[in-house]
Amino acid sequence: MKQIIPILAIIILFSCQNNAQSSKKQQAVINADPIEVSIKNGKARAYFASGCFWCVEAIYESVKGVEESISGYSGGHTKSPTYGSSNTGRTGHAEAVEIIYDPKIVSFETLVDVYFASQNVTQVNGQGNDRGSQYRSIIFYQNEEQKQIILKKKAALAKQLDVEIAAEVYPFQKFWVAEDYHQDYEKLHPNHPYIQNVSIPRLNRFKANFPKEFLKKAAH
Length: 220
Prior knowledge:
single chain, Peptide Methionine Sulfoxide Reductase, Chain A, six-stranded mixed sheet, about 40% helix, two-stranded antiparallel sheet, alpha+beta
Protein backbone atom coordinates (compact mmCIF):
# COMPACT_ATOMS: atom_id res chain seq x y z
CA MET A 1 0.00 0.00 0.00
CA LYS A 2 2.88 2.36 0.84
CA GLN A 3 4.31 1.76 -2.66
CA ILE A 4 0.97 2.29 -4.43
CA ILE A 5 0.30 5.76 -2.95
CA PRO A 6 3.45 7.42 -4.41
CA ILE A 7 2.69 5.86 -7.84
CA LEU A 8 -0.86 7.19 -7.76
CA ALA A 9 0.44 10.62 -6.78
CA ILE A 10 2.79 10.64 -9.79
CA ILE A 11 -0.04 9.59 -12.14
CA ILE A 12 -2.34 12.31 -10.80
CA LEU A 13 0.41 14.94 -11.02
CA PHE A 14 1.25 13.92 -14.60
CA SER A 15 -2.43 14.03 -15.58
CA CYS A 16 -2.88 17.48 -14.04
CA GLN A 17 0.20 18.78 -15.88
CA ASN A 18 -1.12 17.43 -19.20
CA ASN A 19 -4.54 18.98 -18.59
CA ALA A 20 -2.95 22.32 -17.72
CA GLN A 21 -0.82 22.25 -20.88
CA SER A 22 -3.86 21.36 -23.03
CA SER A 23 -5.88 24.15 -21.42
CA LYS A 24 -3.10 26.65 -22.11
CA LYS A 25 -2.85 25.55 -25.75
CA GLN A 26 -6.62 25.76 -26.16
CA GLN A 27 -6.68 29.25 -24.69
CA ALA A 28 -4.06 30.27 -27.24
CA VAL A 29 -6.40 29.09 -30.01
CA ILE A 30 -9.28 31.15 -28.58
CA ASN A 31 -7.10 34.26 -28.27
CA ALA A 32 -5.41 33.97 -31.68
CA ASP A 33 -5.88 36.43 -34.52
CA PRO A 34 -8.39 35.11 -37.08
CA ILE A 35 -7.22 33.84 -40.44
CA GLU A 36 -9.25 35.06 -43.39
CA VAL A 37 -9.88 32.66 -46.26
CA SER A 38 -9.81 34.44 -49.61
CA ILE A 39 -12.67 34.22 -52.09
CA LYS A 40 -11.86 31.89 -55.02
CA ASN A 41 -13.82 31.80 -58.26
CA GLY A 42 -16.48 33.93 -56.63
CA LYS A 43 -16.97 31.47 -53.76
CA ALA A 44 -16.42 32.23 -50.07
CA ARG A 45 -15.98 29.85 -47.13
CA ALA A 46 -17.48 29.81 -43.64
CA TYR A 47 -16.98 27.42 -40.73
CA PHE A 48 -19.42 26.13 -38.12
CA ALA A 49 -19.55 23.39 -35.45
CA SER A 50 -22.99 22.24 -34.34
CA GLY A 51 -22.98 18.64 -33.20
CA CYS A 52 -22.60 15.71 -35.59
CA PHE A 53 -21.25 16.92 -38.92
CA TRP A 54 -23.42 14.40 -40.79
CA CYS A 55 -26.45 16.46 -39.73
CA VAL A 56 -24.96 19.91 -40.27
CA GLU A 57 -23.60 19.09 -43.72
CA ALA A 58 -27.08 18.27 -45.06
CA ILE A 59 -28.70 21.31 -43.41
CA TYR A 60 -26.38 23.79 -45.08
CA GLU A 61 -26.63 22.07 -48.44
CA SER A 62 -30.39 22.73 -48.35
CA VAL A 63 -29.72 26.50 -48.39
CA LYS A 64 -29.69 28.53 -51.61
CA GLY A 65 -26.24 29.76 -52.53
CA VAL A 66 -24.43 26.97 -50.71
CA GLU A 67 -22.42 25.01 -53.23
CA GLU A 68 -20.92 22.41 -50.94
CA SER A 69 -20.59 21.46 -47.29
CA ILE A 70 -17.51 19.52 -46.21
CA SER A 71 -17.21 17.62 -42.93
CA GLY A 72 -14.10 18.01 -40.79
CA TYR A 73 -12.59 19.23 -37.54
CA SER A 74 -11.73 22.68 -36.22
CA GLY A 75 -11.22 24.69 -33.06
CA GLY A 76 -8.56 22.56 -31.41
CA HIS A 77 -4.87 22.74 -30.53
CA THR A 78 -3.56 19.55 -32.17
CA LYS A 79 -2.47 18.94 -35.75
CA SER A 80 -4.10 16.47 -38.15
CA PRO A 81 -7.02 15.39 -35.93
CA THR A 82 -8.91 12.24 -36.86
CA TYR A 83 -12.37 10.97 -35.98
CA GLY A 84 -10.83 8.73 -33.35
CA SER A 85 -8.61 11.37 -31.75
CA SER A 86 -11.30 14.07 -31.73
CA ASN A 87 -13.70 11.69 -30.01
CA THR A 88 -11.38 11.48 -27.02
CA GLY A 89 -12.20 15.12 -26.26
CA ARG A 90 -8.52 15.84 -25.69
CA THR A 91 -7.66 17.52 -29.00
CA GLY A 92 -9.84 20.58 -28.46
CA HIS A 93 -11.37 20.06 -31.89
CA ALA A 94 -15.08 19.89 -32.62
CA GLU A 95 -16.81 18.22 -35.55
CA ALA A 96 -17.24 21.11 -37.97
CA VAL A 97 -18.26 21.91 -41.52
CA GLU A 98 -16.69 24.06 -44.20
CA ILE A 99 -19.40 25.86 -46.15
CA ILE A 100 -18.52 26.87 -49.70
CA TYR A 101 -21.03 29.50 -50.80
CA ASP A 102 -21.76 32.27 -53.26
CA PRO A 103 -21.86 35.55 -51.28
CA LYS A 104 -23.90 37.11 -54.09
CA ILE A 105 -26.72 34.68 -53.32
CA VAL A 106 -26.43 34.05 -49.59
CA SER A 107 -24.76 36.26 -46.99
CA PHE A 108 -22.61 35.24 -44.04
CA GLU A 109 -25.33 36.79 -41.87
CA THR A 110 -27.92 34.36 -43.27
CA LEU A 111 -25.54 31.43 -42.72
CA VAL A 112 -25.35 32.43 -39.05
CA ASP A 113 -29.17 32.51 -38.94
CA VAL A 114 -29.17 28.98 -40.38
CA TYR A 115 -26.73 27.94 -37.68
CA PHE A 116 -28.87 29.14 -34.79
CA ALA A 117 -32.12 27.90 -36.38
CA SER A 118 -30.89 24.34 -36.83
CA GLN A 119 -29.86 23.36 -33.30
CA ASN A 120 -30.72 23.37 -29.62
CA VAL A 121 -29.00 26.66 -28.83
CA THR A 122 -28.87 26.01 -25.07
CA GLN A 123 -27.20 22.57 -25.07
CA VAL A 124 -23.60 22.69 -23.89
CA ASN A 125 -21.09 20.21 -25.32
CA GLY A 126 -23.44 18.40 -27.62
CA GLN A 127 -26.61 18.12 -29.65
CA GLY A 128 -29.23 15.61 -28.55
CA ASN A 129 -27.61 12.35 -27.50
CA ASP A 130 -24.29 13.27 -29.13
CA ARG A 131 -22.42 14.57 -26.12
CA GLY A 132 -18.86 15.65 -25.48
CA SER A 133 -16.66 18.61 -26.32
CA GLN A 134 -16.19 17.22 -29.84
CA TYR A 135 -19.90 17.95 -30.42
CA ARG A 136 -19.94 21.43 -28.93
CA SER A 137 -21.27 24.45 -30.79
CA ILE A 138 -18.74 26.93 -32.20
CA ILE A 139 -19.08 29.72 -34.75
CA PHE A 140 -15.82 30.74 -36.39
CA TYR A 141 -15.14 34.28 -37.57
CA GLN A 142 -12.49 35.33 -40.08
CA ASN A 143 -12.55 39.08 -39.49
CA GLU A 144 -13.98 41.72 -37.17
CA GLU A 145 -17.10 42.23 -39.29
CA GLN A 146 -18.04 38.55 -39.01
CA LYS A 147 -17.29 38.57 -35.29
CA GLN A 148 -19.65 41.47 -34.70
CA ILE A 149 -22.41 39.82 -36.77
CA ILE A 150 -22.10 36.67 -34.66
CA LEU A 151 -21.98 38.47 -31.31
CA LYS A 152 -24.98 40.68 -32.12
CA LYS A 153 -27.10 37.75 -33.28
CA LYS A 154 -26.09 35.66 -30.28
CA ALA A 155 -26.97 38.49 -27.87
CA ALA A 156 -30.29 39.19 -29.61
CA LEU A 157 -31.26 35.50 -29.49
CA ALA A 158 -30.32 35.25 -25.81
CA LYS A 159 -32.52 38.26 -25.05
CA GLN A 160 -35.41 37.00 -27.20
CA LEU A 161 -35.45 33.53 -25.63
CA ASP A 162 -34.26 34.65 -22.19
CA VAL A 163 -31.67 31.86 -22.12
CA GLU A 164 -27.91 31.47 -22.22
CA ILE A 165 -26.70 30.57 -25.70
CA ALA A 166 -24.17 27.73 -25.65
CA ALA A 167 -22.35 28.58 -28.89
CA GLU A 168 -18.71 29.56 -28.47
CA VAL A 169 -17.18 32.18 -30.76
CA TYR A 170 -13.68 31.39 -32.05
CA PRO A 171 -11.26 33.06 -34.45
CA PHE A 172 -10.88 30.76 -37.43
CA GLN A 173 -7.46 29.11 -37.61
CA LYS A 174 -7.59 25.93 -39.66
CA PHE A 175 -10.08 23.39 -40.96
CA TRP A 176 -9.03 19.76 -41.18
CA VAL A 177 -11.03 17.72 -43.70
CA ALA A 178 -12.51 14.55 -42.19
CA GLU A 179 -12.04 11.05 -43.50
CA ASP A 180 -13.61 10.28 -46.90
CA TYR A 181 -16.32 8.05 -45.47
CA HIS A 182 -17.78 10.99 -43.52
CA GLN A 183 -18.38 13.13 -46.62
CA ASP A 184 -21.99 13.34 -47.92
CA TYR A 185 -22.88 10.70 -45.36
CA GLU A 186 -26.59 11.45 -45.20
CA LYS A 187 -26.87 11.49 -48.98
CA LEU A 188 -24.95 8.22 -49.43
CA HIS A 189 -26.46 6.35 -46.47
CA PRO A 190 -30.13 7.40 -46.32
CA ASN A 191 -31.19 4.16 -44.59
CA HIS A 192 -28.60 4.26 -41.81
CA PRO A 193 -30.44 4.21 -38.44
CA TYR A 194 -28.71 7.40 -37.23
CA ILE A 195 -29.59 9.20 -40.46
CA GLN A 196 -33.21 8.02 -40.27
CA ASN A 197 -33.70 8.79 -36.59
CA VAL A 198 -31.51 11.85 -36.02
CA SER A 199 -30.18 13.56 -39.14
CA ILE A 200 -33.31 13.61 -41.30
CA PRO A 201 -35.66 14.70 -38.48
CA ARG A 202 -33.22 17.50 -37.58
CA LEU A 203 -33.08 18.62 -41.22
CA ASN A 204 -36.86 18.52 -41.54
CA ARG A 205 -37.36 20.56 -38.35
CA PHE A 206 -35.02 23.20 -39.70
CA LYS A 207 -36.69 23.34 -43.13
CA ALA A 208 -40.17 23.55 -41.60
CA ASN A 209 -39.28 26.65 -39.59
CA PHE A 210 -36.78 28.55 -41.75
CA PRO A 211 -38.02 31.10 -44.34
CA LYS A 212 -38.65 29.22 -47.59
CA GLU A 213 -37.09 31.92 -49.78
CA PHE A 214 -33.66 30.91 -48.46
CA LEU A 215 -34.10 27.18 -49.16
CA LYS A 216 -33.47 25.19 -52.31
CA LYS A 217 -36.48 23.57 -53.92
CA ALA A 218 -36.75 19.86 -53.20
CA ALA A 219 -35.70 17.64 -56.09
CA HIS A 220 -38.51 15.63 -57.65
